[in-house]
Amino acid sequence: MIKSRAAVAFEAKKPLEIVEVDVAMPKAGEVLLRVVASGVCHTDAYTLSGADPEGIFPSILGHEGGAIVEAIGEGVTSVAVGDHVIPLYTPECRKCKFCLSGKTNLCQAIRATQGKGLMPDGTTRFSYKGQPIFHYMGTSTFSEYTVLPEISVAKIQKDAPLEKVCLLGCGVTTGIGAVINTAKVKPGDTVAIFGLGGIGLSAVIGAVKAKAARIIAIDINPGKFEIARQ
């Protein structure tokens, strides 16, 4: 058991509270991460607002992280202590029928327990004053230390700045994926993107990668256009 500072959502519609929580060491097939940087996504705010039907409290929110592996449980082979990783709220077991058919976004390996704020064994690794604290989206990056299943971490190169690549955990991949995987933009297409927030700007990157002939960016904030051009 180790101590960790965390921004805990004790109740819906209440501000996060920064407290010191207890974090259990990883069990077999699990990884302990030290979160260096975390993004803040609208989904976190949505859950905290109480509008999320799957919201569970008390919990530690956050799902965009850049982290370093601090410890590994028995049987973990894909990462080692000291590796830099990105936590994944959509894991890939590479064994279920969805992963084997290329639909890794539908991986069922840990979905049932993750949706309940629990680890695959049905328990939580977080506690505060002896009471359990639930995980969030399988990642809980609003904690200095967090525990994830091995299949929920992606190893990255160590020279990648964690304060930037943490956004790959959700916003960047959502925007790029919307263009390439959902809209299936082809070379020569015209693309219109409404809103140049983190996801919209990432969609611009996706449109460039897809070799769109014309990209139309739409936003009420004129300051966003120069960023989009970059």
> What percentage of residues falls in helices of 4 or more residues?
10-25%
Fraction of residues in β-strands:
25-35%
Overall geometric form: globular
Number of domains: 2
Mean pLDDT: 95
Secondary-structure element order, N to C: EEEHEEEHHEEEEHHEHEH
CA distance, first residue to last residue = 46 Å
Task: Please name the CATH topology of the largest domain.
Answer: Quinone Oxidoreductase, Chain A, domain 1
Per DSSP E runs of 2 or more residues, the count of β-strands stands at 12
In CATH, what is the homologous superfamily of the largest domain?
Medium-chain alcohol dehydrogenases, catalytic domain
Structural class: alpha+beta
CATH first level of the largest domain = Alpha Beta
CATH architecture group name of the largest domain: Alpha-Beta Complex
Number of helices: 7
If strands are numbered along the chain, what order do they take across the biggest sheet? 4-1-2-7-8
Rounded radius of gyration (Å)? 19 Å
Biggest sheet architecture: 5 strands, antiparallel
Flag low-confidence runs: none
What distinguishing features does this structure have?
12 strands; 28% strand; single chain; five-stranded antiparallel β-sheet; Rossmann fold; alpha+beta; 230 residues; Quinone Oxidoreductase, Chain A, domain 1
